[in-house]
Amino acid sequence: MKVVIVDDERLARKELQNLLAKFPHVEVLAECDSVQSALVEIERLKPDLVFLDINMPGKDGFALLEELNFIPEIIFVTAYDEYAIKAFEVNALDYLLKPIQSERLEEAINKFTLPEAVENTSHKLGLNDQVFVKDGEKCWFVKLANVPMFESEGNYVRVYFDNNKPLILKSLNNLANKLDENVFFRANRKYIINLNWVDTIENWFNGGLMVKLKTGNKIEISRRQASRLKDMKSL
Known about the structure:
Elements: E1 2-6, H1 10-20, E2 27-32, H2 35-45, E3 49-53, H3 61-67, E4 73-78, H4 84-89, E5 94-97, H5 102-112, H6 116-122, E6 130-135, E7 138-143, E8 149-153, E9 156-160, E10 167-168, H7 172-178, E11 184-186, E12 191-194, E13 198-203, E14 209-213, E15 218-221, H8 223-233
Parallel strand pairs: 1-2, 1-3, 3-4, 4-5
Antiparallel strand pairs: 6-7, 8-9, 8-12, 9-10, 11-12, 13-14, 14-15
Helix pairs in contact: 2-3
């Protein structure tokens, strides 16, 4: 397991690294003392797991998650318990209070070390999951069952739910990796659709499909993805 430590306090980083040394399957790739340095190192190294402090000068740990394109698993590490609810709203793996106890650290790490056979499905977000969405000063806690589609707009993704369409700083590729594709299907390079919101499907040009969602939106499924959908859902 490859990890990165993000904490502005040198002694805190050293203490955590000493604790992690007791786990032979854990390799610390880098230590970062700010959000800016963490952005660079996480995108470059693509670790499995990041131990992330929340309170740091300038931008905090939550701000880091908003700016990352590559999103590893996150374990928050902080001296304060007031952020616990928000940490789990952004799907953190765990939340550790300083000073870190070795037993709690082991418990948190074990949440990640799942057998490979179930790892791909255990970490996927489905209809019953709720996610934290922030756009400017507005925030929502959204149940994914209420999201009919996601739309790529450059380095952002537009999330559709109720009458809202906020933008989040995330690539569609990264989002697709976090969602259960049996429900949230990549229709084409621009859209992920919630199959539970599909109203009608018809054959389209060049072997593709055209789906109409219950919202009235029409989304074309590319020929390649149409073939995948048929393979997934055919009897």
